[in-house]
Design a protein that fits this description.
86% of the residues lie in helices and 0% in strands. By secondary structure, it is mainly α.
Length: 216
């Protein structure tokens, strides 16, 4: 009986270091660095999905032709991807310039070398090219969802329903993925993203329909 107890204690002692090691590896993940590209990717995907879906729903409110909806969606995809990529590049580059200038000032004040050295601090600096590419690609992926839904449906009403349903499911997925990668509450993120998307679709469809009725 004594030998059996000793054997169990040895197993527990050996198992604890591996658990501690796994916990340390999880804690060592740099979520700040991950957030640099994650923010751009999630924002781009949601923006592409919501804006192109809303655009197609708005066009569909006054025009039942599927080709017109697809052309509007394609134009929105190209324009939006370019706009998101360029805008993200300019924005992040401005942030990078501010951070680099601040680091130089702090080092000069503290009497350390004023020029930047490649190290852990540089790894945490935002990358404009990475953010721009992630945003543009994510926007295109998000925008392709409603276009795929509308491409194979000829009936007008069914097409609108399919586009809305597919976009809603994609919003839930994007919200969940963003929350999981960023270690944020999944349910709250999904609901927030879904409600925001529904509001954009409803407002665009309703106002376009109203303008169509008034013949402006």
């Amino acid at each position: 009986m004594a030998s059996f107890g000793t054997h169990n204690n040895n197993i527990d002692i050996e198992a604890k270091p591996s658990k501690i090691k796994g916990a340390e590896e999880n804690n060592s993940i740099d979520y700040f660095q991950r957030a640099q590209w994650l923010r751009a990717a999630v924002l781009g995907a949601n923006d592409g999905l919501v804006s192109v879906t809303s655009l197609m729903m708005g066009v569909g409110a006054v025009n039942e032709d599927s080709t017109t909806m697809l052309l509007a969606g394609f134009a929105g995809l190209i324009a939006g991807a370019c706009s998101m990529g360029i805008g993200e590049f300019v924005s992040v580059y401005t942030q990078l310039d501010i951070m680099v200038a601040q680091i130089k000032r702090e080092r000069e004040i503290s009497g350390i070398i004023s020029s930047l050295k490649k190290g852990c601090e540089d790894e945490k600096l935002p990358n404009p090219f990475q953010a721009a590419i992630a945003s543009a690609i994510a926007f295109s992926l998000g925008a392709s969802v409603p276009m795929i839904g509308a491409a194979f449906i000829r009936d007008y009403k069914i097409r609108l329903v399919v586009v809305a349903v597919l976009s809603s499911l994609a919003l839930l997925v994007f919200g969940g993925v963003g929350a999981i990668l960023g270690k944020a509450p999944v349910r709250l993120s999904c609901v927030r993203v879904l409600i925001g998307g529904w509001m954009a679709m409803a407002i665009t469809f309703g106002l376009t329909k109203l303008i169509g009725y008034s013949s402006l």
